[in-house]
Amino acid sequence: MTVKDLSRVEGLKAHHIADENQPVKDIYCGDLLSDVMANAQENSALLTIQGHKNTVAVASLLGLSVIVLCNNRIPAADMIEAAESEDISIFSSSANHYRTALAITPFL
């Protein structure tokens, strides 16, 4: 799947799309950024509630394609600015991690 495919998933709202052709090969759910750093794989979508610029730094370090904020979290302005700088897409979902992952999984 690609970031463009994610933009078609019902319930996801795009806040910043860096490269709609960037591949998304997996999903990683995590809110503890040290755990994300240890376990997420390159070109994954990170599902989290951490809506701040440090999440973008971790995503950039790992080569993650996209961050999806769950549970009605909205990205802070500095998070969007960092995502623009690091070419990482950001979406949000009103659903929890599990429901959001279920919505995305058929596109993988």
Give a brief rundown of this model.
With 108 residues, this protein is α/β, with parallel strands linked by helices. It has helices at residues 3-6, 33-39, 53-62, 77-86, 97-104; strands at residues 12-16, 26-29, 44-48, 66-69, 89-93.
How would you describe this structure to a colleague?
- With 108 residues, the protein is an alpha/beta fold.
- The chain contains five helices and five strands; from the N terminus they run H-E-E-H-E-H-E-H-E-H.
- It has helices at 3-6, 33-39, 53-62, 77-86, 97-104, and strands at 12-16, 26-29, 44-48, 66-69, 89-93.
- Strands 1-5-4-3-2 form a five-stranded mixed sheet, sandwiched between helices.
- The protein is globular and about 30 Å long.
- The termini are close together.
- The relative contact order is 0.26.
State the shape. Answer: globular
The whole-angstrom Rg is 12 Å
N- to C-terminal separation? 5 Å
Give the oligomeric state of the chains in this entry, treating copies of one chain as homo and distinct chains as hetero. Answer: single chain
- Give the topology string: H per helix, E per strand: HEEHEHEHEH
Number of strands: 5
What would the CATH topology be? Udp-n-acetylmuramoylalanyl-d-glutamate--2,6- Diaminopimelate Ligase, Chain: A, domain 1
Question: Main attributes?
Answer:
Udp-n-acetylmuramoylalanyl-d-glutamate--2,6- Diaminopimelate Ligase, Chain: A, domain 1; 21% strand; 108 residues; 5 strands; five-stranded mixed β-sheet; alpha/beta
